[in-house]
Design goal:
The complex is a heterodimer of chains A (110) and B (119). Chain A is mostly beta strands. In chain A, 0% of the residues lie in helices and 45% in strands. In chain A, a hairpin with a 4-residue loop joins strand 7 and strand 8. The termini of chain A are far apart. In chain B, a hairpin with a 4-residue loop joins strand 7 and strand 8. Chain B is globular and about 40 Å long. The chains are: A mainly beta (110), B mainly beta (119). At the A-B interface, strand 7 and strand 8 of A face strand 5 and strand 10 of B.
């Protein structure tokens, strides 16, 4: 069982806006910043969002992140077929003294 | 450009050890930490620990303490992750990732190394 909780799957049609949620507790998301990674099958994860809502250079502004209390969200607007991938949230946990990840959300573009 | 190149796939028997390497290039090796994350087949990501090449300081996930050792060779800009007493549950792809100090992110990743544990 992952420390951070994500829905296993999400879906949307091209052009739609999709939101992926990530739930934690007061030791991780509640006091630390959230990072999001995108992973295509058979490849390494890629940094998508850091510090809750910051995009590294090269990441389209269709991707945005937010945090409230012990939960975080990743929003993808103007959904494209290339967005079909697995998405993971992560945060440092002050109780476990380590990084914790969500179980991942598989996004399907219908 | 930043590159992390990992060693090739390994097949090990239960009880054996494996040592995976991660060679860094394209940046000042000593100024960034390196973290190890693994992913079992069809599963999510799991943080194993971290090492800073600057002074060799390590921080291991509680789950792996006593069974994992991370080391660094600054002369070749390479970090190593050794995992001992392997079981079938250790079958996974092992990734190294660059860990910029204080930024709470893994900004560049190696290509991954598949370790298969099978009798």
């Amino acid at each position: 069982q992952s420390v951070l909780t994500q829905s296993p799957s999400a879906s949307g049609t091209p052009g739609q806006r999709v939101t992926i949620s990530c739930s934690g507790n007061s030791f991780n998301i509640g006091r630390k910043t959230v990072t999001w990674y995108q992973q295509y099958p058979g490849t390494a994860p890629k940094l998508l969002i850091y510090s809750n809502n910051q995009r590294p250079s090269g990441v389209p502004d269709r991707f945005s992140g937010s945090k409230s209390g012990t939960s975080a969200s990743l929003a993808i607007s103007g959904l494209q077929s290339e967005d079909e991938a697995d998405y993971y949230c992560a945060a440092w946990d002050d109780n476990l003294f380590g990084w914790v990840f969500g179980g991942g959300t598989k996004l399907t573009v219908l | 450009q930043v590159q992390l190149v990992q060693s090739g796939a390994e097949v090990k028997k239960p009880g054996a050890s494996v040592k995976v390497s991660c060679k860094a290039s394209g940046y000042t090796f000593s100024t960034y930490g390196l973290t190890w994350v693994r992913q079992a087949p069809g599963q999510g990501l799991e943080w194993m620990g971290w090492i800073t090449p600057y002074n060799g300081k390590t921080d291991y996930a509680q789950k792996f303490q006593g069974r994992v050792t991370m080391t660094t060779d600054t002369s070749t800009s390479t970090v190593y992750m050794e995992l001992r007493s392997l079981t079938s549950d250790d079958t996974a792809v092992y990734y190294c990732a660059r860990d910029p100090p204080g930024l709470y992110q893994f900004d560049h990743w190696g290509q991954g190394t598949l370790v298969t544990v099978s009798s």
